[in-house]
Amino acid sequence: MQNARLAGPGAGAEKYDILTALAVKGLSSSGTLQTSILRLVALVTARYNWARGEMAIGQREMAALWSVDERTAKRETRRLIDTGFLVLKVRGVKGRVAVYALDLPAIYAATQEEWGKVGSDFALRMAGRHEPTPQRQVPPQSPDAHVVHVDFSGGSRGASSPWARMMRMLEDANPAHFASWYARLSLVRAERGVVTVCAPSRFAAQYLETHLRRELEHPLRVCFGPDTRCEIVAAS
Length: 236
Fold this sequence. Notes:
alpha+beta, Arc Repressor Mutant, subunit A, GMP Synthetase, Chain A, domain 3, 3-stranded antiparallel sheet, 10 helices, 52% helix, globular, DnaA_N_dom, DnaA N-terminal domain-containing protein, DnaA_N_sf
């Protein structure tokens, strides 16, 4: 997790760019994810201390800001943490509110697909700030190479292939992570005990490798075999 502490020249522009990226991501999403992201935008706009890279706020204050009850605010906070956007730095105790921080790599990775909707200059500016560690690219495929894209919007939701079963397990285990990180994965190949999956960007591949490999490997081994190894590559 990279602490979102922004100060000095250019900090103001980056703050607005982060909020813009989150807002566009929220508007392009639907249902629970859309609501969560737009609530996060309101929370950050109102309470985030960018110079310190954190915000101190209680459940009651969150509930008032979002016009919900405290139970809903608690669930929403947990959802934002599970999605990876928000990090709990200091747990709230009696007489002291909790302290949260933004996870910039998670936000940049999750919103990257939407940058172009704002403009090419915006996309270049965002990409220049947080270039991930170089990730191995998918090698050129032969004409008969098979890349499977699973679309859960139609009949493939009931498919019985190992890949489809794995994707269902990921979605059932953590819908927030699935929407942000797993839904756009594709299967490159599964051979000799290695399942190669392709992420839509280098940033997403790096984040999966660093933060979510264990969560990804559990259903993969259930569906493809207990000794299967996962290889994560990025789309070229």
